[in-house]
Amino acid sequence: VIAFFQRKVLAGRRVVVTAGPTFEALDPIRGITNHSSGKMGFAIARAAREAGAQVTLVAGPVSLATPRGVARVNVKSAREMLAATQAAVPDADVFVATAAVADWRPVAEADQKIKKDGSGAAPTVAFAENPDILATVAQGERARNGALFCVGFAAESHDLVAHAKAKRERKGIPLLVGNIGPLTFGQDDNQLLLVDAQGVRELPRASKLVLARQLVAEIAARMAASH
Ligand code: CTP
Ligand code: CA
């Protein structure tokens, strides 16, 4: 009912959202992941759909229902997430990266379960850096000439404002959203900081869906202003 009365600020637009953690396999049984629930990204996908957009949600392993009317692509690893995202962004107008992408993956995935050898020695795992999906997309031509509006998220444990400002510039994106601590994995509410070229603005604590709707409105306003 509420959605019905919302203004369709993204009508005719295509939006791609990454959400959830990634899972980086060590062997067929085990892997490295993190506590991301995917709730913020799923809420943004839902809000963008409510606002009239055609939405593709690239989701890592999470146990959440797909928002109504949203096209979902399930992935596990960061490299799969990058491939699915690159397949979706060429005709998109907005890219919102909420995924908690694993920064590193085990260099090798064992074909078989790694077994204890009885000596008490623990295996050593070598890691390789994963691709930065947001930075890769933001460096593309359509993002650089303003045809694809890129939004990043950052969860920091300390010095949020300074880190968020630096991260926005490093990634080359117009808008970075900071999760204001304490870290809210799996919670239904959140508190956000919007960091753009003009400065910093707070979205006070609210449910992730309410914040997602506010963020969608902010994105639409910035797109209108830049055209
Ligand atoms: N991101 C991404 N691909 C990665 C790492 C991050 O797309 N390999 C995106 C996240 O989805 C988020 C933004 O980049 O929108 C910031 O992620 P974050 O982990 O805070 O930044 P990093 O650049 O990885 O730096 P660090 O973890 O060292 O703070
Ligand atoms: Ca990271």
TrEMBL record:
Molecular function via GO: phosphopantothenate--cysteine ligase activity; phosphopantothenoylcysteine decarboxylase activity
Keywords: Decarboxylase, Flavoprotein, FMN, Ligase, Lyase, Magnesium, Metal-binding, Multifunctional enzyme
Binding site for CTP: 103, 113, 131-134, 153, 167, 171
EC numbers for this chain: 4.1.1.36, 6.3.2.5
Reactions catalysed according to its record: N-[(R)-4-phosphopantothenoyl]-L-cysteine + H(+) = (R)-4'-phosphopantetheine + CO2; (R)-4'-phosphopantothenate + L-cysteine + CTP = N-[(R)-4-phosphopantothenoyl]-L-cysteine + CMP + diphosphate + H(+)
All residue ranges annotated as the DNA/pantothenate metabolism flavoprotein C-terminal domain in the record: 10-221
Stretches for region Phosphopantothenate--cysteine ligase: 15-227
Details of cofactor binding: Binds 1 FMN per subunit.
Protein name: Coenzyme A biosynthesis bifunctional protein CoaBC
Annotated pathway: Cofactor biosynthesis; coenzyme A biosynthesis; CoA from (R)-pantothenate: step 3/5; Cofactor biosynthesis; coenzyme A biosynthesis; CoA from (R)-pantothenate: step 2/5
Family listed: In the N-terminal section; belongs to the HFCD (homo-oligomeric flavin containing Cys decarboxylase) superfamily.
Free-text function comment from the UniProt entry: Catalyzes two sequential steps in the biosynthesis of coenzyme A. In the first step cysteine is conjugated to 4'-phosphopantothenate to form 4-phosphopantothenoylcysteine. In the second step the latter compound is decarboxylated to form 4'-phosphopantotheine.
UniProt key word GTP-binding: no
Protein source organism: Ramlibacter terrae
Cofactor: Mg(2+); FMN
